[in-house]
Amino acid sequence: MPSPQTELKVAQFLKAIIQGEKQLEAFRQVLVEQKGFDPFLAFNHLDKDYKGSISPFSFCAFLR
After folding, report:
1. Domain range spanning residue 50?
2. pTM of the predicted model, to two decimals?
3. pLDDT of 59 over the 90 cut
4. What is the dihedral of CA 40, 42, 47, 50, to 10 degrees?
5. What is the pLDDT of residue 60?
6. How many structural domains compose the chain?
């Protein structure tokens, strides 16, 4: 059985993840509401290698 300290740290970790997910969902909703935004086109723009996924390299290149 984990110690109370371990349980507290796990609970704090899970709480941080949940808060991050809530914030991310709010950002997604704002983005989707933008006129002219097409998630499919945005994904294809980032998927430079046409692999069906976005690599960290592609994402960093986009941010530059």
Report:
1. 36-64
2. 0.59
3. no
4. 40
5. 87
6. 2
